[in-house]
UniProtKB/TrEMBL annotation:
UniProt pathway annotation: Quinol/quinone metabolism; menaquinone biosynthesis
One GO biological process term: menaquinone biosynthetic process
Catalytic reaction equation(s): cyclic dehypoxanthinylfutalosinate = 1,4-dihydroxy-6-naphthoate + dihydroxyacetone
InterPro entries: Menaquinone_biosynth, MqnD
Species for this entry: Arcobacter cloacae
Catalytic residues, chain numbering: 146
Lineage, opening ranks: Bacteria, Pseudomonadati, Campylobacterota, Epsilonproteobacteria, Campylobacterales
The protein, known as: 1,4-dihydroxy-6-naphtoate synthase
């Protein structure tokens, strides 16, 4: 049986959505999934190099890898009135060219930040180090992602919500596209459909069995936060809207790609639904 590498981030929503497979509740038909947990920008860079068969990515990366990876419909994270936060020390005023820490060049928050703050001086670091860098004055501000949006130090305050920036730039209250997954195009179509369906089922099973799965993850020390914070975080980023992308989510993703294209970050304007795995192939094949 072949082994398929599945890379995801170590944050709570990715762990939660994947572990129905890890615990054997859901299994692919013709392969063994081997999971790897790395921070999101490391995953973005790895996808640029084609290192993994299936990989979690920032949505903002996708136009750069569209020729080598298909976009998956599942295990997606969107903000609905919330998202990453631009934070600073309480009582400080940011200058026009303030120094800011971002979690990676190809993250969605970096794309939106660069459009909104073209004069800021950007430095990149692991998302776990950003809060400390702001507190010790290494940078003037930082964009927090993942669980840190719920747990940051009380000496810090929010300068701007990335959700607010998204609404201003997009001109509509579409959900904020943050991250999803992609699959190597060299994988045969029949297998690709099988793997995507496996992941869809895993996210669905995880959501339906959240009261069982979440305590198991905490007990095995697989999650960085406590039970109440995990519960709140899963409400935000691992929910029914994560199982399979909806029409409004595709529309939001297209708006993100449009913003990137119009601001010179992408060479071509693409539509998300043109880059999905054509799952209808299996239905036609069965006729």
């Amino acid at each position: 049986m072949k082994t398929i590498s599945v890379a995801h981030s170590p944050d709570a929503d990715d762990i939660f959505m994947y572990y129905a497979i890890k615990f054997g509740w859901v299994t692919p038909n013709d392969a063994k999934f081997e999971n790897i947990a790395l921070d999101i920008e490391t995953l973005n860079q790895a996808t640029l190099k084609g290192e993994f068969d299936i990989c979690a990515i920032s949505f903002a990366l996708y136009p750069f890898v569209k020729d080598d990876y298909a976009l998956l419909k599942t295990a997606v994270s969107f903000g609905e009135g919330y998202g990453p936060k631009l934070i600073k020390k309480k009582g400080t005023t940011l200058k026009r060219n303030f120094k800011v820490a971002l979690s990676g060049e190809f993250t969605t928050n970096a794309l939106l930040f660069k459009i909104a703050y073209p004069n800021a001086r950007i430095t990149y670091m692991n998302f776990l180090d950003i809060e400390k860098a702001v507190l010790d004055g290494s940078v003037d501000a930082g964009v927090l992602i993942h669980e840190s949006i719920l747990t940051y130090d009380n000496e810090l305050e929010v300068e701007k919500e990335m959700w607010a920036i998204w609404v201003e730039l997009s001109g509509a209250e579409l959900p904020l596209p943050l991250g999803g997954m992609c699959l190597r195009r060299s994988i045969p179509l029949h297998s690709a459909i099988n793997y995507e369906n496996t992941l869809i089922k895993a996210v669905e099973v995880a959501n339906k069995n959240r009261r069982v799965l979440a305590p198991m993850l905490l007990e095995k020390d697989l999650i960085r936060v406590d039970a109440p914070t995990l519960d709140k975080y899963l409400d935000l980023y691992a929910n029914d809207n994560s199982v399979k992308m909806s029409e409004i989510q595709y529309k939001a993703l297209d708006k993100l790609f449009e913003l990137g294209y119009k601001n010179g970050f992408y060479e071509n304007l693409i539509k998300s639904e043109d880059f999905l795995i054509p799952s209808e192939y299996e239905e036609l094949r069965a006729r």
